[in-house]
Amino acid sequence: MLWLISSLGLPLFAVAQTVTVSQPVVLRDENSYDIFSDDRGNVLLFKNKTSEFQVQGFDANMNLSWEKDVELDRKSPVIEAVVQGDGGGFNLIYQFRQKLLPVLKIHRYSPAANLVDSVTIKRFDQAFFTPSFEVEFSEDKNIALVWFIREQTEINALAFDMRQMKLLWEKTFAPENLILQRDFLQAIVDNDGNMYFILSKDNHSGRRREHFLEVLDFGPGTDSVLRRYTVPMQDYLTYDVKFNYDNLHRSLKAGGLFSEDNPSKAEGFYFLSIDQARPDSNLLKFYPFDNDFVAILNEKEKVKNKGIPEATVQKIVMRTDGGFILVGELNKEFQRGSTNASVYSRTGFRPVIDYYYDDVFLISMHPDGNVHWKNILHKKQYSQDDSAMYSSFFLAKTPTALRFVYNDEIKHENTVSEYVVRGNGDFDRNAVMSTERKELQLRFRDAVQVSAYDFVVPSERRNRLKLVRISFKGEK
Question: Is the pTM value of this prediction over 0.85?
Fold first, then answer.
């Protein structure tokens, strides 16, 4: 059941959710784009054409209302991040060259893409040096954490307040024996501008008993002193983990998968909570998977818990009581190595890669680390040589439920389905729409929620981009 609305905004069916499709926008190979809301029901599309930059505005019915070019400094500007700002505008962080030296700068724009403010964040003093920036945003999107590695071991980080358009702090530090590719897990910034740089140490079977997680904490909450604390992992290996900061309860949370005997499989899950007022004390609980849970995920009638291969933690969804929901997914890549299983590209022949994105599993945890409920959402997605851009799911958070929306199959004509999960773990599975004869290929991994009941998902097919708005305003 659905409403399908054409690009003119005319309803074709009348049911629970509405689907509205924009006119196509032509893409080139070098194009990238960002989607966000202007807080007034309209959608903005920022197009990065490498040397040209443009914003297009779409109304609530996804009709193109206006477009405007964005002017940046002319010395080879490189976009680092685009994010929605207060009041429905957006902020754009980029670097460029000035007298051969790199400069990091931010522009603030109004909802009509008019330049409101411009600030130079940092001028670097080393020529022929191009920082490779990583950018993370706080939950409220008001703080930007920008960091990069210098000389392989030195971490340079800064926090910028995009409400006041001022630099909060800048810090250089060098963690002991850092090998970034081996040790780095995640970088997070909270709504107050505090950084959490998270490392994993000795995470291999030969040193299982020494394995620990390390958190480097810096910002206003530490009186601008770099604070370091560790979490011993109790003889377990970290298989995969995702951290999130709970701004409501001022604590760092992590939901992870662990291994004990077989590092190639996840044998259980764990809950970690670190109170930022007392970071040296933490709550850490481990739970092995039960046999039935493993049997369902491995598609076997009965099996002893020997673990789950190819599982990843995709999200940590915070609960208002201080608990969270761990969202995991089964996914894997398979590279075909034979000559017959190769395709020709600009750089010559390369192997074909198969992508499998299957069941999603949910584990809801109370604030004390005890398990509330567990559930498995079944799906099967297979694609080939597409970087899995149409696979996985989008998680829409509405006032009454979590909605996991995904393509049933990865093909040109397809059914879009959803799982609607309520707070007690109960769920329903619904059909959302069909793409038959609509010339749509939906990239749910890149969808953006633009209001409490609406999200926009890009569709890319034959170098044509369409923006598809899905609204759940009729939900109960």
Answer: yes
